[in-house]
Amino acid sequence: MNRRRFHLAVAVAAIFSFCAVPASAMTIKEFRKFSISEQGMYIGAAVNMLAYSYAANGETGKASCIKNWYFGKKGVETPGPRQLTIEIDVAGNLDPDRYQVEGVILGVTDKACGAGGLQGKK
To answer: Which of 1, 2, 44, 117 has its CA 20 to 30 A from that of 74?
Structure first.
């Protein structure tokens, strides 16, 4: 994970933690209103925060698995971005008002790295 992405995730987490109104998950319909660039930044930050959350709760294996699955090494294509794009498109075609981006991210990362961190633990 590069420093820029890490700092973005920390900034977003800080903003959400200081908001008086609880943040709610974003529907795919709302998500599609963003530009492609903004969608990419949103997903990257959400994946980063999810991995950080697992690490903070002692599930470092799952956190590392998610980080490697989505971000990998610079210059090396990883499966995460493509898998998330496909699943968000599928959910959006089914019901963009019902499905939420964060739910799709959680489901896909659980498939990739195991629900409960079983596959991600080392």
So the answer is: 117
What residue segments make up the domains of the chain, in order of their start? Answer: 3-117
Sign of CA dihedral 116, 105, 52, 23: negative
The pLDDT profile of the chain, 122 residues, written as one tens digit per residue, is 455 555 555 555 544 444 444 456 899 999 999 999 999 999 999 999 999 999 999 999 999 999 999 999 888 899 999 999 999 999 999 999 999 999 999 999 999 998 754 443 44
Q: Is the pTM of this model over 0.70?
A: yes
